[in-house]
Structure formats: structure tokens, C-alpha cells
Amino acid sequence: MIVSIAGLVALSGLATAHGDHGQSQLAGPHQGLWYNTLPGDGGTQADSVFSGISTFGRLPYYPCLASDAEKYDIAFLGAPFDTGTSYRPGARFGPSGIRQGSRRLNLYGGYNVPLQANPFTSDMRILDCGDVPVTSYDNAWAIRQIEEGHNSILMRKPYLDANKPGLSRAGKTLPRIITLGGDHTITLPLLRSINKAYGPVTVIHFDSHLDSWKPKVFGGSPSEVAAINHGTYFYHAAMEGLLRNDTNIHAGIRTTLSGPSDYDNDGYCGFEIVEAREIDVIGTDGIIKKIRDRVGTDNPVYLSIDIDTLDPAFAPATGTPETGGWSTRELRTIIRGLDGLNFIGADIVEVAPAYDTNAELSTMAAADVLYEVLTIMVKKGPLSVGEESHEL
Q: Which of 2, 22, 168, 288 sits in a 20 to 30 Å window from 73, CA-based?
């Protein structure tokens, strides 16, 4: 007891001695201790990578689905759905995984050297709107949730050029939505939402699979609900008139088929095909030329990217992996080659983090691919048209 009292007296003396130094107690959070800005053209210090909530590229978060008070030009939206997959489930965790993989995107400032632009420092307002609430018990209802959630944040006035004519069917300027999947089934409700705003659109589809199979060929004969899955959604999109039938293209295809008739059906759905193996002959420049020649430079274009476009060596965490794919460098180069096109929206799908390596290869690759897409959209500026459009 005597020792304890002596210890307390000693501690009290130490505290008194420190008090004599004139130090004031720090009230947290103490901003003076945080040095988050870098000299030069901007950026953030590494200590900020792990601060705040997890958003894409650490963008500001706003609950867009709950409120329309905030305006934006580009919004990220998660669609955690994976009950339309045929092989590996797990893409419902894709949105959170991609956000985790994006933590370093603007660590050193975010400047995209090949595209000569910084998507994080433009006049455009870019937000992460979180995820659509998606049920895992009813595919039909989940698809409706995704369509309505996407459309609710698409059909709003953007931050820039809100009152100027735009590419939409109503002649108005709309924001862009980049959706984080989710298995590839989500592209059907997204195209239904896009159709309300733009009518039939041109689609560039990066994938190892066609995804235009007739339901009776790809697991959909038991029921109407089963007919819509991650291998048939483009067939339904074509039948519903959501696509411009003379301008759509697949890139990266290397799947096995039920037979040559699958290609005939795909052409009926309005697609041209670029096989993955063509890169060995024509290179990335040849792939880019084929895509640009097919879609044109004036059409509104929707971009859908399946992470399985990449070889499993570069992105193992996906629902239906196919060997013989492109490298991450090759895919990023090809996407950069689409700079200047009228991208009205995009998605990246089939990222299933449970199958990734500890090094987060797939989620980083997905985030980096979207970084290229985001940069192209920012360089293009708002989706307004005419001489009055905003120049960035």
C-alpha cells in the first residue's frame, strides 16, 4: 500500500513537471498534425489512404439514392448482385473490393500521364453514391431495384451545363453513372435505364464471353426468371430494342461455344466480334482501330467491361475465368485508345474478391481500368452539345 501511494505521488510529480513546460492539451482531431497536401501539382500523403470511408479513389461520398440535393457530373454506383452467375458466385462483394483496390489511384496526385489529364482535379464534380440495395432472394426484384436505382440518379441535372442541350433523347445534358458490379446480369437493367434517357445506344463490350446466348442455350429454359442471367442479358437487350444494331462490338472474346450458330445469333443481336487472339497479329493499335471504326465518334456509347477480359494470371478473381486473355497493360492501352468517344455511362463487372490473391491483383486491375475510363469522361467534359458546351 505504501509503495502504491509512493508511485502515485511520483506520477503526480511527473505530471506537474510536464505542466511547467507550458504545453496545452491537444484537442482531437488536431488538423495541424495532418499534412495531407503535397507540393507541386497536388496530391495527398500516404497517411490519408487509410482515413475516412472507402469510396472509389477516396472521392466524396453522398447518399444520392436518398437525396437529390447534391449535383454531380459523374457518379459511382455499386450493384452488389451475383445470383445470375453460372459458375463462381461472389461478385456481390465486387463494389466494395473495387473501392478497396482504388485506394492508391490519386495518392501521388492522380495525373494520368498517357492521357495527359487528372480526373480528380477538373471542374467536374465526381461523387461515390454508395450501393443500390439489392435483394439476394429474388432475381426479378433485384433487377428492378438496379434499374430504378440507376435511373433515379441518372435522370437529374448535372453540376455543369445543366441548362445546355445534350445528347439525351430529351435534348438535355445528363450526368454519367459508372456502375461497380456485380455479375454481368446487371448490364440489362442498366441498359433499360439508359434507354429511358437516350433510346437505343451503341455498346462496347469487353469480355471473354459473348453474353448474347439464347436462353434455351444458356440455362434459361426452366423459367422466365432463369432466362435472364449473365450469359443472356445481351440477347434480351437486343430483343427489347435497347441496342443500336449496326454499331455494337465485343472485344477480347475467347470462349468455347455450343457451336458456330452462337456467332450467327450474336450477329443477329447486332454485334461485331474482336477475338482476343487477334492482338497477336494486329496489336493493340489494330484492336483500337476495329473498335473505333465500328462505333463511330458521334454516337452515344455505353461501355461494359468484364474483368475476365484479362487473363486469370492478371485477374484471377472472377466468376468465369478463361485463359488466353489480355494483360492489364494491354487492356488499359486499348481503353485509352478510345479517348474522345461519347461515353454516356459504363460498368465493370464479375469482380469476385474471394478468389483474389492477397496482393489484390483483380480489384486493383478493375480500379485501374476504371481510372482510364474516368479520365476519358473527364477529358470529354459534360455531355452537352453545340458551341455552348463547357470546355475542360
A: 288
